[in-house]
């Protein structure tokens, strides 16, 4: 290797060594090939636990039942039985600590999601009784006349 | 000096001698033995969508956004519902206003920059809704093309994105045939539905499954033969989307139609 | 606004999350790497195949290729949503992805071109240091130059005939190895697109080959244009200097852009142009003939919405007109410049039609997306992914080239008669 021709190679090897040392410090220790192999499982293992730790926002109706028994029972006996409370009132989170109260959304937009009449015969949508939101009392809130927890009953005044 | 015959004899002897210990490695490969014992994972998540039951209310989209902190007003969503309206002239009209975040509250089809298309009730031949979400494919092309290993598949089949490692190149978004991926408007990294991994690993259902009042969405463990989702997949006629791409999607549909894209 | 919403207009049915995510910077990137590869191949035509008339342009294009390399990285840094994490491609490369090849390919190529440049200029470094050392009363600038060049010699001071011959042999070997590496530098970009089965326009095995041929075309064309421009500029500077100081040599001593060198280079350009256009037309014909599921929407994009961009701009102005201009009898510098500039326009349109064209239709095959290039930036994002960002990328190689030519002069002393 006496010839000067090899000089650039030494520079390259030096830079490569630096790069490998850099890798040791910069790559997280748990980064590697995990269960699904190199093609589908090349990742930082710790990330899986991070995703599992995401906070749960929706608690499902079973969570609401204990304190709001009356509304829960109303719903159970109505055609709205399968709508979870949080669909209209927003996610429960740590209610009653945080948030201390959930919104009572009285806007038409909420009801019209299902009750805008769409005659789609191939879909379950056509089985839902509905109105034309443009012509049916467009200025009023639905809850003025209808009781959302049991639409078979009149609105509670 | 060795002669030709002697050389051949010695060479064969040496090669044969090598073959024995090498084959032993093959027969008693410790890695393979372990793999056979714990061959399959006990859980493999699968999803079932019943398009007959979907009414297009969009509660699933709203719940998903809230549960997974995707900004409500952003024009991206982890899951969405598509509406297909076939008119009697044979034209298929498809739309998904804001991903059906607010449901479908207009008979007219939104055509993007082309405006709204008025559809008269009597012209409708057939119409239905198709919810879409990540298929958590068995051969996910999005994972294959990630240059840095930021997206990956867990042992139980869910494809996740490492928000601290993603460089935001967008290759995974281009590689997904289903259009499920997008850039998160706040974190500026790739994002997609992950079956609410934080819920299902705690024994809960995904947010969209809970939110659907009509039972159109169900999640289950495909490795458990007694799971209701698995039972339907094994006994009834189910379909998947874009099978020709070879992605092996694990999102199964009841009631898919030829018009569905 | 989410990323992509500012410049995407959706029509009919497009999946809610679909926007045009790969924009002008992704058009610029293959353009830049193509120029890198093409410039290198041109330089190698002299070093490897010994085409003596190309000696001048060979050194020129080698330096230009090296100046283009950092410029080629710039569009990627401007496109990434997390550019500071770009180094991860070197830290945890996922080689099942074509993009991961970037780290290896770029590093290898930089090593080869850097080393080749060192061998070409080593004698110049040594001679410069020697003449500066012999000089009395050096200015600060000259002391710095002397120090800088001393480092660049890497301690190899021998400039005897045998040593210089070793240099030339090394250059020849490196140029030979470099050709496939340069092809890979751009071929892998073609693979990035060609392997995406989700995109009906990109998915074809021909894509890497089309990109390679197009790269060589673009590199040769750019080198011809810049070489002619540089020669003319040299003359103008000498005229200006001569007016200041009549004792300096006149322009008659300076060579102008020699028409024979240019004509010879143009011949190679035409060869690769024919190859590139044949492959592209083959791809189009196959698609139309086999008419798979995606053909309906592709047809409306190729023959409808993008007809002007593809057939008039790319094939017409970018290929047919230059063909005629460059093949006419009695070639002149003016015809060559016009022809090669049009070729560069055609090359740019090809990248545009592939990258943007591939996103002009939805993966649903039932809708379209239109790309509105942001002209005036009203945010950092619309600067980076807009016209000004592309122009920045376009100007940087010339700036770098000018800086490099101060260190590695294109025209060595023995040519300044």
Which helices and strands occur, and which strands form pairs?
The complex is a heterotrimer of chains A (157), B (261) and C (417).
Chain A: H1 7-26, E1 31-33, H2 37-41, E2 42-44, H3 46-52, H4 61-65, H5 69-76, H6 85-89, H7 108-115
Chain B: H1 4-27, H2 30-37, E1 45-50, H3 59-67, E2 80-87, E3 92-95, E4 109-110, E5 116-117, E6 124-132, H4 141-144, E7 151-153, E8 159-161, H5 171-175, E9 182-183, E10 190-191, H6 197-200, H7 207-211, E11 217-221, H8 228-235, E12 251-254
Chain C: E1 8-12, H1 24-47, H2 55-79, H3 88-91, H4 101-134, H5 140-153, H6 161-194, H7 207-244, H8 259-290, H9 295-305, H10 307-327, H11 333-355, E2 367-371, H12 380-384, H13 387-407
Antiparallel strand pairs in C: 1-2
Keywords:
heterotrimer; A: 157 residues; mainly alpha; 2 domains; two-stranded antiparallel sheet; 4% strand; B: 261 residues; alpha+beta; Alpha-Beta Plaits; three-stranded antiparallel beta sheet; 8 helices; 26% helix
Question: How would you sum up this structure, described in words?
Answer:
The complex is a heterotrimer of chains A (157), B (261) and C (417). Chain A is mainly alpha-helical and 157 residues long. Chain A is 37% helix and 4% strand. Chain A has a two-stranded antiparallel sheet with strand order 1-2. Chain B has 261 residues and is an alpha+beta fold. Chain B folds into two domains: 45-136 and 194-254, 2-Layer Sandwich (Alpha-Beta Plaits); 141-191, Alpha-Beta Plaits (2-Layer Sandwich). Helices cover 26% and strands 19% of the residues of chain B. Chain C is mainly alpha-helical and 417 residues long. Chain C has one domain (5-415): Formate dehydrogenase/DMSO reductase fold. Helices cover 69% and strands 2% of the residues of chain C. Chain C has helices at 24-47, 55-79, 88-91, 101-134, 140-153, 161-194, 207-244, 259-290, 295-305, 307-327, 333-355, 380-384, 387-407, and strands spanning 8-12, 367-371. In chain C, strands 1-2 form a two-stranded antiparallel ribbon. The longest helix of chain C has 38 residues, at 207-244. The termini of chain C are far apart. Chains in contact: A-B, A-C, B-C. The interface between A and C is medium-sized, with 17 and 20 residues.
């Amino acid at each position: 290797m006496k010839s000067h021709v090899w000089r650039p190679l030494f520079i390259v090897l030096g830079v490569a060594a630096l790069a490998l040392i850099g890798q040791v410090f910069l790559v997280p220790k748990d980064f590697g090939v995990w269960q699904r192999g190199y093609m589908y499982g090349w990742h930082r293992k710790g990330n899986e636990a991070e995703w599992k730790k995401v906070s749960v926002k929706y608690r499902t109706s079973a969570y609401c039942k204990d304190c709001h028994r009356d509304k829960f029972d109303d719903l159970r006996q109505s055609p709205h039985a399968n709508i979870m409370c949080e669909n209209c009132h927003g996610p429960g989170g740590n209610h009653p600590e945080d948030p201390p109260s959930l919104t009572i959304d009285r806007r038409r937009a909420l009801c019209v999601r299902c009750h805008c009449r769409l005659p789609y015969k191939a879909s379950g949508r056509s089985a839902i009784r509905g109105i034309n939101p443009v012509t049916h009392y467009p200025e009023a809130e639905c809850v003025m006349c209808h009781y959302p927890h049991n639409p078979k009953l009149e609105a509670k005044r | 000096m060795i002669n030709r015959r002697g050389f051949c004899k010695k060479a064969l002897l040496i090669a044969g001698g090598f073959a024995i210990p090498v084959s032993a490695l093959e027969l008693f490969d410790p890695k393979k033995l372990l793999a056979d014992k714990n061959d399959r994972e006990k859980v493999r998540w699968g999803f079932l969508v019943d398009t007959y039951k979907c009414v297009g209310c969009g509660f699933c989209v709203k719940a998903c956004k809230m549960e997974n902190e995707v900004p409500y007003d952003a024009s991206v969503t982890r899951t969405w519902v598509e509406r297909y309206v076939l008119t009697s002239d044979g034209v298929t009209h498809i739309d998904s206003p804001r991903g059906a975040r607010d449901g479908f509250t207009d008979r007219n089809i939104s055509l993007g920059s082309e405006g709204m298309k008025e559809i008269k009730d009597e012209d409708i031949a057939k119409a239905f809704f198709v919810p879409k979400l990540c298929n958590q494919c068995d051969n996910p092309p999005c994972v294959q093309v990630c240059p840095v290993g930021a997206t990956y598949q867990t042992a139980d089949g869910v494809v996740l994105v490492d928000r601290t490692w993603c460089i935001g190149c967008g290759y995974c978004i281009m590689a997904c045939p289903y259009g499920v991926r997008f850039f998160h408007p706040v974190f500026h990294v790739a994002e997609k539905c992950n079956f609410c991994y934080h819920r299902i690993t705690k024994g809960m259902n995904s947010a969209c499954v809970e939110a659907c009042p009509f039972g159109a969405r169900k999640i289950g463990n495909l490795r458990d033969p007694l799971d209701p989702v698995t039972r339907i997949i094994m006994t009834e006629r189910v379909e998947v989307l874009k099978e020709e791409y070879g992605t092996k999607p694990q999102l199964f549909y009841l009631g898919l139609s030829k018009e569905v894209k | 606004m989410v990323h992509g919403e500012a410049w995407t207009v959706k029509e009919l049915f497009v999946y809610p999350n679909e926007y045009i995510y790969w924009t002008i910077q992704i058009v610029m990137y293959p353009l830049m790497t193509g120029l890198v590869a093409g410039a290198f191949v041109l330089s190698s035509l002299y070093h490897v195949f010994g085409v003596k008339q190309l000696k001048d342009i060979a050194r020129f294009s080698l330096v230009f290729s090296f100046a283009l390399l950092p410029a080629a990285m710039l569009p990627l840094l401007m496109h990434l949503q997390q550019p500071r994490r770009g180094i991860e491609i070197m830290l945890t490369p996922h080689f099942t992805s074509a993009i991961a090849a970037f780290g290896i390919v770029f590093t290898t190529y930089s090593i080869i071109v850097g080393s080749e440049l060192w061998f070409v200029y080593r004698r110049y470094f040594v001679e410069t240091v020697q003449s500066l050392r012999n000089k009395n009363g050096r200015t600060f600038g000259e002391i710095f130059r002397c120090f800088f060049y001393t480092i660049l010699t890497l301690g190899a001071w021998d400039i005897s005939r045998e040593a210089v011959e070793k240099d030339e042999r090394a250059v020849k070997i490196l140029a030979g190895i470099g050709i496939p590496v340069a092809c890979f530098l751009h071929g892998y970009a073609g693979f990035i697109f060609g392997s995406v089965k989700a995109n009906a326009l990109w998915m074809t095995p021909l894509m890497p080959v089309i990109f390679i041929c197009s790269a060589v075309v673009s590199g040769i064309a750019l080198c011809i244009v810049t070489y002619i421009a540089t020669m003319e500029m040299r003359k103008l500077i000498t005229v200006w200097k001569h007016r200041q100081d009549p004792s300096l040599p006149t322009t008659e001593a300076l060579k102008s852009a020699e028409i024979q060198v240019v004509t010879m280079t143009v011949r190679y350009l035409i060869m690769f142009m024919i190859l590139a256009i044949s492959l592209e037309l083959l791809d189009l014909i196959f698609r139309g003939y086999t008419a798979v599921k995606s053909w309906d929407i592709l047809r409306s994009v190729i023959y409808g919405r993008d007809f002007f961009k593809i057939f008039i701009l790319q094939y017409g102005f970018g290929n047919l007109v230059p063909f005629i201009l460059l093949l006419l009898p009695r070639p002149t510098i003016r015809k060559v410049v016009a022809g090669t500039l049009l070729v560069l326009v055609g090359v740019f349109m090809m990248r545009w039609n592939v990258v943007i064209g591939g996103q002009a239709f939805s993966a649903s095959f039932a809708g379209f997306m239109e790309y509105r290039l942001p002209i005036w930036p009203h945010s950092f994002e619309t600067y980076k992914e807009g016209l000004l960002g592309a122009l920045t990328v376009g100007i940087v190689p010339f700036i770098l080239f000018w800086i490099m030519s101060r260190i590695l002069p294109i025209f060595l002393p023995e040519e300044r008669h």
